[in-house]
Design goal:
29 strands; eight-stranded mixed beta sheet; 12 helices
Length: about 550
């Protein structure tokens, strides 16, 4: 707003020449951009049966001119992507006052001439009161009320997680205001949930929908940094769902999508689904060989580990990522409905801040979220979030930074330095496994394995230090390495009971001082079970 020098009252100024009274709202790329692939990108877009295509993330909506509501020769108005006004034809001069009915605060004052158009900067939900006067006489007034009226809620296509996070708020808006809501979204989303929301009218976003009868239109999006007037608050403070809830004038809260009921289980064995791929290296788990280490642990617990990403390999400018070799390969362009069925019957899911994690959460499957660049509250609530707060973290939630998918590596604080994307390079397999073991089903399997004297074997990544091995032994005294050459010591037991607590560090220190000692009884170091031994797996380094 600017100040009207004659009255001293605030005056609204329309400062967006690219979005006028009528025409297209196009080129608004609010969602993810496709990462550069190792092989050439196919020309054809991904089939809606498979899911969203990041290359199809633009949303184009055509606005009518003049505004939809009002008399032909009177004041015309609507709320299609901002409050839009058109004064009656002629040479008259008009004074317009706008109020917010929810706070009863005057939003501003402006002067318009006959036939003049005006569009508000604010593109989010405001329950306006409009008063128009000429010569001091009130000639028009209107209080925003979309009850029974048609409202378009646009969910730009392109991002799986974005769409799953935002679409439920179209239904929430309909229920709160009792409006006739057109949900403009991707064809793939309509195929999945269209029949589960009978009160919504779904329109494919690719149709370039003309909102000819809409009383109001709202976009669900994370807007660019320079579009501050398009959002009531910065998304960094309210997360993916909270920020869109505020755009629509709703109470921020976690909302799940309605999905088809779980089918009959096809895989008999217990299994876990994982997703190791994302759209930017900032989202990846960058601990060397971390996924394979985790997969071996899960398999020792008795789980099948299924990798369900669409792409098995992704190549960025300086970094290449592949699915873990220890996981079963269920990658590929498979129908999204099949992914949903697989997730609904999984014991739990382990993933990144990306679309498949959102899908798993919507399937009511426990989600282990490995994330360094986002903080709790950014995505959906889960008690199994893994972040190393001792190092740089949370840049997505920094209101001075805006996530840019177009750069090869988004690390606004340390890109190009040795600390680049350190937030996920310092999340160790131990941190993830500790979190997994808090999931009731996994904790139960761990306890059953210990009682059966089934050794839970584990190995460290190449280059692991003796100190790392000692810490593992302190927390998991019954772990035996898969590859003894990668560490110095391991603990072995023939006992049927769970090994009791003992001072393993003192035992390790003792063996360090005795190079010729091959094994010792841990009973000498506080272990009550005389059958547990600490034995040397590799000769001491010289």
């Amino acid at each position: 707003m600017s100040q009207d020098s004659s009255s001293g009252r605030p005056e609204f100024v329309f400062s967006q020449p690219g979005i006028a009274m009528g025409g297209d709202i196009s080129g608004l790329n609010f969602s993810i951009a496709a990462p550069p692939l190792e092989t050439p990108v196919e020309n054809a877009l991904i089939s809606p049966e498979i899911g969203p295509d990041p290359r199809n993330s633009n949303a184009t909506v055509r606005l009518p001119d003049p505004p939809v509501c009002g008399e032909p020769d009177g004041v015309r108005f609507d709320f299609n992507y901002g409050c839009r006004l058109k004064m009656p034809p002629g040479d008259g001069e008009y004074e317009v006052t706008l109020y917010d009915l929810d706070s009863l605060v005057c939003l501003g004052y402006l002067k318009l001439r006959g036939g003049e158009n005006w569009v508000a900067d604010a593109k989010y939900f405001i329950r306006y009161r409009i008063e128009v006067r000429t010569g001091g006489k009130l000639i028009f007034e209107h209080d925003y009320d979309c009850t029974g009226k048609r409202v378009s809620v646009v969910v730009p296509d392109g991002g799986l997680g974005d769409n799953l996070a935002w679409m439920p708020f179209a239904e929430e808006f309909r229920k709160k205001h009792r409006a006739k809501v057109d949900c403009v979204c991707g064809e793939w989303l309509i195929r999945i949930v269209g029949k589960l929301y009978p009160e919504l009218n779904f329109i494919p976003v690719a149709s370039s929908h003309l909102v000819a009868e809409s009383y109001a239109t709202y976009f669900c999006a994370i807007f660019p940094k320079d579009r501050k007037s398009w959002r009531p608050a910065d998304h960094q403070n309210f997360g993916m769902q909270g920020s869109v809830a505020m755009l629509l004038g709703l109470v921020p809260k976690p909302l799940k999508l309605r999905l088809p009921k779980p089918p009959v289980r096809r895989i008999k064995e217990p299994y876990v689904c994982i997703s190791a791929m994302a759209t930017n290296p900032a989202k990846y788990w960058n601990w060397p060989d971390g996924w394979n280490t985790l997969c071996r642990f899960l398999k020792r617990l008795g789980y099948r580990v299924l990798a369900i990403d669409r792409d098995r390999t992704l190549q960025f400018e300086t970094k290449k990522y592949e699915e873990p070799s220890e996981a079963e390969d269920f990658t590929g362009k498979l129908p999204l409905a099949d992914r949903i069925k697989m997730l609904q019957n999984a014991d739990f899911f382990i993933g990144l801040p990306s679309g498949l994690s959102w899908l798993a959460w919507n399937c009511d499957t426990p989600v282990v979220m490995i994330s360094g660049f986002s903080l709790e509250g950014t995505e959906f609530p889960t008690p199994y979030r893994v972040t190393n707060f001792k190092f740089c973290h949370g840049c997505w939630n920094d209101s001075q930074e805006f996530f840019d998918m177009s750069v090869p590596v988004w690390c606004p604080r340390h890109v190009g330095t040795p600390r680049e994307i350190e937030c996920t390079r310092v999340i160790s397999p131990k941190m993830v496994i500790d979190t997994v073991c808090r999931i009731p089903s996994a904790a139960k399997k761990l306890e059953e394995a210990r009682r059966r004297n089934r050794r839970i074997r584990f190995d460290l990544a190449p280059g692991a230090t003796p100190l790392e091995m000692r810490h593992w032994l302190a927390d998991y005294p019954d772990l035996v390495p898969d590859h003894p050459e990668k560490c110095e010591f391991a603990v072995e037991t023939n006992s049927n009971a769970t090994p009791p607590q003992f001072d393993v560090r003192a035992a390790l220190k003792f063996m360090d001082a005795k190079p010729d000692c091959e094994k010792i009884k841990l009973a000498d170091f506080g272990c009550l079970d005389s059958r547990i031994e600490l034995r040397r797996l590799a000769p001491p380094k010289k």
